[in-house]
Design goal:
The chain is of the alpha+beta class and about 300 residues long. Helix content is about 25%, strand content about 25%. It is built from 6 helices and 18 strands. Bound molecules: uridine-diphosphate-2(N-acetylglucosaminyl) butyric acid.
């Protein structure tokens, strides 16, 4: 059985030998926080479209999800991979979720901590894979917008416009603009967003790469460094290249696209060639981010 949200983070490698459930549970409730008037608790059913939900919260004066605007998919799919963009991950705003346990038939509640969130990761992708169907997600949002603008370029953009503290809708509009410029819309051209996770390597590995490639893009991450996988792929000349209808997007090397009739297997073949090339030049293993089905 396969439960689908928007289907935008999925590589189908074969026909599905079973039942496919399209989760279209609808409904949003907004509740004032009894203890803190500055906070607001928003619950959305899993089948709500993620971006429409984000805009709804902002238009209702509930702030905190603006940096996650225009991410494809549904509310229920968002915690599966702890969606993240422009300095925020869903775990930073989530309070809890409800899910149907397929083993017991019971509805159960997960706190944010119980979801075991990591970078593009959660319990639902790991040891509980396939067990739960997420039915609704609750977020703790703020009545006052506290914009998070640390990600490259965001603060400069608003400073350039003379806006010291943008409101949530202004941040959301700009994030949409940036995403539209860099990332293909899955409604126009098949893609699953970033195809690889940004790899985390040791300081020693990063130093070794820097000797040959001083312009490597990397960020401190825990004890190691997160490397920009898009940069590694781009540096090896893959941006805009194709194998048949499977291609590397010409504006962002981390995104693989389907130019027409590529199968899931064609996309995975291209991904494999990129992984091999990156490994042989940088000694870094790239991990595929979207889900492949059947595995
Ligand atoms: N870069 C290149 N060439 C490229 C692509 C990127 O040199 O072709 C360099 C950029 O110049 C930049 C760095 O790599 O210095 C990082 O690029 P970018 O800011 O576009 O972010 P990313 O690391 O490629 C990650 C997420 C995106 C998210 C953005 C913004 C992952 C796997 N991807 O991309 O998430 O939108 O940051 O926060 O972490 C997704 O998960 O599907 C996704 C789109």
């Amino acid at each position: 059985m396969l439960v689908l949200g928007g289907g935008s983070n999925l590589i189908l490698v074969d026909d599905i030998p079973g039942l496919v459930i399209l989760n279209r549970l609808q409904g949003i409730t907004v509740k004032a926080d009894a203890d803190d008037p500055a906070k607001v608790c928003v619950t959305a059913a899993a089948g709500e479209n993620w971006h429409d939900f984000v805009r709804y919260t902002l238009e209702s004066g509930a702030y905190g999800l603006e940096n996650l605007s225009l991410i494809p998919g549904t509310v229920g799919a968002a915690p599966m991979q702890n969606i993240g963009a422009y300095g925020i991950e869903i775990k930073d705003r989530m309070l809890s979720l409800r899910a149907l346990d397929r083993e017991t038939g019971e509805l159960c509640e997960f706190t944010t901590e119980a979801c075991e969130f990591g970078y593009r990761d959660s319990i639902f992708k790991q040891r509980a894979a396939g067990r739960y169907i997420i039915t609704e997600v609750t977020f703790m949002l703020s009545r006052k917008c506290q914009p998070v603008l640390a990600y490259a370029g965001l603060a400069d953009h608003f400073a350039g416009l003379g806006i010291e503290s943008p409101d949530g809708l202004q941040v959301s509009d700009y994030i949409c603009q940036v995403r539209r410029a860099k990332l293909p819309d899955p409604a126009d051209i098949g893609n699953a967003g970033s195809f690889f996770k940004n790899p985390v390597v040791s300081a020693a590995r990063r130093e070794a790469i820097l000797k040959d490639y001083p312009d490597l893009v990397s960020f401190a991450d825990g004890d190691g460094y997160k490397l920009a996988a898009g940069w590694l792929i781009d540096r090896l000349g893959w941006k805009g290249r194709s194998q048949g209808d499977a291609g590397v997007y010409d504006k962002q090397a981390l995104v693989l696209v389907n130019h027409g009739a590529a199968s899931g297997a064609d996309i995975l073949r291209l991904a494999g060639a990129i992984q091999e090339d990156v490994f042989s030049h940088f000694n870094v293993r790239l991990e595929i981010e979207p889900r492949t089905f059947p595995q």
